[in-house]
Design a protein that fits this description.
The complex is a heterodimer of chains A (404) and B (237). Chain A is built from 13 helices and twelve strands. In chain A, strands 1, 3, 4, 5, 6, 7, 8, 9, 11 and 12 form a ten-stranded mixed β-sheet that branches. Chain A has a two-stranded antiparallel ribbon with strand order 2-10. The radius of gyration of chain A is 32 Å and the shape is elongated. Chain B is an alpha/beta fold and 237 residues long. Chain B has a single domain, classed as 3-Layer(aba) Sandwich (Rossmann fold), CATH 3.40.50. Chain B is built from six helices and eleven strands. Chain B has a six-stranded mixed β-sheet with strand order 7-8-9-3-10-11. In chain B, helix 4 packs across helix 5 and helix 5 runs parallel beside helix 6. Chain B is globular and about 55 Å long. The chains are: A alpha+beta (404), B alpha/beta (237). Chains A and B meet through helix 1 and helix 10 of A and helix 2 and helix 3 of B.
Chain lengths: 404, 237
């Protein structure tokens, strides 16, 4: 006869309410683990999907995911000339926040090295890849921009031609893919007045030196668009992505690029490690601490509930002792109740999570290994939680029945 | 000749020490044969319950010996056997309140006593049902205690006490919570099971209306036992 089940059946209401509470706590524990996995997934998604073998970034920096990295766009051509390199692409990535249709819109602007890269590697769920050098964009569905929608960023309007799903940056903001030149235009957009003031300032600076006074044509050029002044460098990009030829010696290519003092080279794995050891690592520790606290709280709650349930039936336990029940029968009653509470709470957490987690603003990834380890933790904490009740039960004297 | 169901020799129980010392039982001795129903009377605080709990192996005496079914089990406070196992196999208890486990049905309350004594669940269920039928509460087998009357609860408690066919049945004021009619039924039940199942029965009681069911009556006063000669009413032919 299973005493634990019969007692639970008798006190079903209390058991159910307590189990729901434990279940919600465990769902939070489960969810926090899932949020951490989601952070890693989102953070490494782009690095994984973009398919580069090497990342060339500004010298002595750790790349665009760790800090600001600025390198000349022309570096793409230099890299392409290195033996073993099949493909080099400019990489631009920055986050913007604009108002769109009355709501704030945050997106990670991602530059594709058009025409070499039209975004064919991007997994689309609707629409198409980029087909022209300007004014088209591929947006993640999380940005809630329908196909065909035109959105004004800077001085230009861009039309949504394709949709991705689940393509978000490390901050959880949806990715939007543009050509590199459009991405730079969005990044470095300045108001017309600022452009006019800058041109006037250039002209004024030139007028103060002899060259400007002797060559009036130079004054006219200085007051013109920056792009028409050969002395000015091309816009800078965040990184250059390198794809190696099949069978190429990656170490040799790295050695070659490593001799260039203006850049630093990372493998894709190194770039991911840098990404994870930075922002994600802190989030991991934060979430880990919360998980530990919640597990401790769950243990205390289960222990107190089991202890209370034990106190409620202390006379029954004394009676069981009086009629000769062994300690394992009494201990088993309490331990089984604790385990059942933990098991039902865990199952409830998983079930509620199926509905709740997809509605979280950030991706929640529940992996089987995490579920198994949490199940093991629940087993351990349920066992630990029963100890207080068992300890109390073991101290009860059989003659408590008579004195009650 | 078979061993007595219980034999108590020179039982002494002292609570506290020094100035606060209270002698609850003084050198009490008694013996109850199997198949004998013995009543124990006495005012409150006279030591009845102390003697009973010592015999129940849940309140060890300060000194004295207790043997049950011929086996020495207590020598003063020292246990000579595994007391819990011994209680399980040889003793049955009935209290003032039925003390049924509230989350078990009447049948399960009896069944659990059998299962803790290693009877297989199926067999335990069969024997528990037999006992409930024997005591006239078989039709209430699947009811929880809360749905039973006081008398029915006490019958279930008796069934539980008898489950493992104890050689000694101890009852502490079992009719105190019952009306006179139900109280008498329970007392007669003790006499019946004692005689039919050959168990020694000791009943601590204040109820003088049911003394005629006992084979012997012991009176306890100031921790000492005296035997009262029982005068049964004469029945006219």
């Amino acid at each position: 006869m299973n005493l634990a089940v019969r007692d639970i059946r008798h006190n079903a209401g209390r058991f159910v309410f307590t189990t729901v509470g434990i279940g919600l706590l465990l769902m939070m524990v489960m969810g926090m683990g899932g949020i951490y996995r989601g952070l890693i997934h989102e953070a490494t998604l782009l690095v994984d999907r973009v398919g580069a073998d090497l990342w060339v970034v500004q010298g002595s920096t750790r790349g665009p995911f760790a800090e600001i990295s600025r390198i000349s766009a022309s570096l793409e051509d230099r890299v392409r000339a290195v033996p073993g390199v099949a493909r080099a692409r400019r990489f631009v990535s920055h986050t913007i926040q604009r108002m769109h249709r009355g709501r704030p819109l945050r997106m990670v602007v991602q530059g594709l090295s058009w025409p070499d890269d039209s975004g064919g590697w991007i997994p689309l769920v609707a629409g198409r890849a980029l087909r022209q050098a300007h004014y088209e964009m591929i947006a993640d569905v999380s940005l809630r921009l329908p196909l065909g929608e035109r959105i004004t960023l800077g001085k230009d309007a861009y039309q949504v031609v394709g949709h991705t799903q689940g393509m978000v940056g490390s901050s959880g903001d949806g990715l939007a893919f543009f050509t590199v030149s459009d991405a730079l235009a969005i990044q470095f957009d300045v108001p017309g007045e600022a452009v006019r003031l800058e041109r006037a300032a250039r002209r004024a600076r030139l007028e103060n030196i002899e060259t400007g006074r002797l060559q009036p044509l130079l004054l006219d050029r200085a007051a013109g668009p920056s792009s028409s002044i050969p002395a000015f460098s091309k816009p800078q990009v965040s990184a250059v992505l390198v794809t190696l030829q099949p069978g190429a010696d990656a170490a040799a290519v790295r050695r070659t690029l490593g001799t260039w003092p203006d850049i630093t080279v990372y493998s894709t794995q190194e770039q991911k490690d840098l990404l994870l050891s930075g922002m994600v690592d802190k989030a991991k520790r934060q979430l880990g601490l919360f998980r530990v606290l919640l597990i401790i709280i769950s243990t205390i709650i289960i222990a107190l509930i089991i202890y209370t349930l034990t106190l409620d039936k202390i006379r029954d336990i004394a009676l069981l002792k009086l009629i000769g029940a062994r300690n394992r029968v009494i201990g088993g009653l309490i331990l089984q109740q604790s385990l059942l509470m933990g098991a039902f709470g865990y199952a409830l957490a998983w079930w509620i999570g199926q509905f709740a987690f997809p509605r979280f603003p950030r991706l929640v990834v529940i992996e089987t290994a995490d579920l198994i380890s949490l199940g093991f933790i629940v087993l351990v904490i349920s066992t630990l939680a029963s100890m207080l009740g068992i300890w109390k039960a073991m101290r009860v004297e059989p003659n408590t029945v008579l004195s009650a | 000749m078979s061993s007595p169901a219980v034999e108590v020799q020179n039982l002494r129980k002292v609570y506290g020490s020094g100035h606060t010392e209270v002698i609850a039982v003084r050198d009490a001795s008694l013996s109850i044969a199997r198949g004998e129903v013995v009543g124990m009377l006495g005012p409150s605080g006279s030591g009845k319950s102390t003697i009973l709990t010592a015999m129940a192996l849940i309140n060890p005496p300060t000194s004295g010996r207790v043997s049950i079914n011929g086996t020495p089990v207590l020598d003063g406070p020292k246990a000579l056997v595994d007391l819990r196992a011994f209680r399980r196999q040889h003793l049955g208890f009935v209290f003032q309140k039925a003390n049924l486990i509230p989350f078990l049905t009447a049948l399960e309350n009896v069944q659990i006593a059998l299962e803790v004594n290693d009877t297989a669940p199926r067999e335990a269920k069969r024997r528990a049902m037999e006992l409930l039928d024997y005591l006239g509460v078989g039709e209430r087998a699947n009811n929880l205690p809360v749905a039973l009357s006081g008398g029915e609860q006490q019958r279930v408690a008796v069934a539980r006490a008898l489950a493992n066919e104890p050689s000694l049945l101890l009852a502490d004021e079992p009719t105190a919570a019952l009306d006179s009619q139900r109280g008498r039924q329970v007392m007669e039940l003790f006499a019946k099971v004692s005689h039919e199942r050959n168990a020694g029965v000791l009943v601590v009681t204040h109820d003088h209306r049911t003394l005629d069911v006992f084979d012997r009556i012991l009176e306890v006063e100031d921790g000492s036992i005296a035997e009262r000669v029982l005068t049964r009413p004469q029945t006219t032919p």
